[in-house]
Amino acid sequence: DTGVSQDPRHKITKRGQNVTFRCDPISEHNRLYWYRQTLGQGPEFLTYFQNEAQLEKSRLLSDRFSAERPKGSFSTLEIQRTEQGDSAMYLCASSSENNGGNTIYFGEGSWLTVV
Amino acid sequence: AQTVTQSQPEMSVQEAETVTLSCTYDTSENNYYLFWYKQPPSRQMILVIRQEAYKQQNATENRFSVNFQKAAKSFSLKISDSQLGDTAMYFCASLYSGAGSYQLTFGKGTKLSVIP
Q1: Per the omega criterion (within 30 degrees of 0), is the bond before A8 cis?
Q2: CB distance from B37 to chain A under 8 Å?
Q3: Residue B88 to chain A, least CA–CA distance (Å)
Q4: Cα–Cα nearest to B93, from B106, B76, B103, B102
Q5: Which of 18-47 (A) contact B at CB < 8 A?
Q6: For a Cys-Cys bond, which of A28, A107, B39, B110 suits A6, CB 3.0-4.6 Å?
Q7: Rounded distance, CA B68 to CA B1, Å?
Q8: By CA distance, what is A111's nearest residue in B?
Q9: A104, A108, A110: best mutation site toward chain B, by most B Cβ within 10 Å?
């Protein structure tokens, strides 16, 4: 059983550019989550999908952020017009409704540096 | 809203010794779950142990065990026979899955160093 995979692992971009991260959850996990983690802090929730439906969004997810999960499998997180404050690790996670959805497994994360 | 507090930013332990990491949480819910995650320098968050709030028995996973005190809203992690590979950031987290929400709320973490 492969784990949650994320791509790219590292991204350096200039301020104002758009970036997109991809997440492939554990196969057959119907729930998918995005979190953001800055240095010295615990992860903070951004958004949650059940299958293809985006059911919950944090107020941290500004209008410049958009997440999709078009076929209920992989997901993308796009950040438009990046700002230096967007520099962080973006973590994807997944879980299965079948086990109650209460054990959430994380990927290795995508590091974003905005210069 | 749920909050999770880890009051020990850093800790160290000698190899083969036992260490306890503290965590307190605040929730008004009755049905919730608690977790300890480990994040080594490679950065992947790894689940260490989980506890269902409705279970009185403390969870155990090999060298890792918890002391769950529901009334005190305390959830500490004990690591026995510490190994060098245990060096990592440890995050305590809570999950309340009522009303269709599946947000994990994390503490700020405790950096554990295992000394040879």
Answers
A1: yes
A2: yes
A3: 13
A4: B106
A5: 31, 33, 35, 40-45
A6: A107
A7: 20
A8: B43
A9: A104
A91 part of contact set with chain B, CB < 8 Å: yes
**Amino acid in the structure at residue A31:** R
pLDDT of A1 above 60: no
| B44:A106 CB<8 A | yes
| pLDDT tens, position by position, B36-86 | 999 998 778 999 999 998 888 999 999 999 999 999 999 999 999 999 999
- Cβ separation of A108 and B107 shorter than 8 Å? no
Tokens of B37: 């995650």
B84 in Cβ contact with B116 (< 8 Å): yes
Per-residue DSSP letters for B38-105? EE-TT---EEEEEEETT--SPPEETTEEEEEETTTTEEEEEE-S--GGG-EEEEEEEE--GGG---EE
